[in-house]
Amino acid sequence: MARAQFQKGQKVWVECVGVWARIEHVQPVWAKGFDEPVRVTYDVGLGREFLAQELAVPTEDPGATAGDNARWRLLRARNKWQAAEDCPHHPFPGTYPVVVTDPQDWGGWRVPGAEYDRDPQRIEYQARLIAVAPRLLDLANSMIAAVADVPDDAPPEMRRLAELARDLVRDVTETTTVAPVTEQATTRMSGRTEPLPDAPAESRATQAA
């Protein structure tokens, strides 16, 4: 016999599609002579019903509570691919941005030289945004807590914003018990669709080091 493992409104990861969704309807399938459903499917608004094994529940990511977010900072590294005189269109010729997230200035975010050179202004903006992301997350959590303290007295617009902030925070701090599957891009040849070859497994951090 089958029992419902999820409930209406619950957030789930749809493994075969690779997206988050919410349970819209729990669909028990009954058979004559049985007191309980023989199967339970779930409608998540994606055009078909899913079985429980195709869905996963979000769990708290241990990395989200590590407590080292405040150490994220933006540094500038020497550009090893181009001399300063060869790239006057860069905001800071001779250097590129690196966001470090470790006390020893290790780890974090950076891009390959060719990608930076293609659109340096956009990469600079991304670096600044990533560096302040922990503080924006703290701000969202503070808004959520402030509304939670006085839920009946908070203005409707503040409650709405706090609910949006809660959803955004969950997108950051929650993961699934099943590893998400990343779909490869495909190309059609002779009526067949085949995955494109894997890109070389070279770390972006290594390229930019």
Report on this structure.
- The protein has 209 residues and is α+β, with helices and mostly antiparallel strands.
- It folds into 2 domains: 11-56, no CATH class; 64-173, no CATH class.
- It is built from 4 helices and 12 strands, in the order E-E-E-E-E-E-E-E-E-H-H-H-E-E-E-H.
- Strand 11 and strand 12 (192-195) form a beta hairpin.
- Helix 2 (120-149) packs across helix 3.
- The chain is elongated, with a radius of gyration of 24 Å.
- The relative contact order is 0.13.
- Residues 179-209 have low confidence and may be disordered.
Total helix count? 4
Shape: elongated
Task: Please estimate the helix content.
Answer: 25-40%
The average pLDDT value, as a whole number, equals: 79
What is the H/E string?
EEEEEEEEEHHHEEEH
Q: What is the rounded distance between the termini? A: 57 Å
What's the total number of strands? 12
The main sheet orders its strands as 2-1-6
* Main β sheet profile: 3 strands, antiparallel
Low-pLDDT residue spans: 179-209
Radius of gyration: 24 Å
Strand content: 15-25%
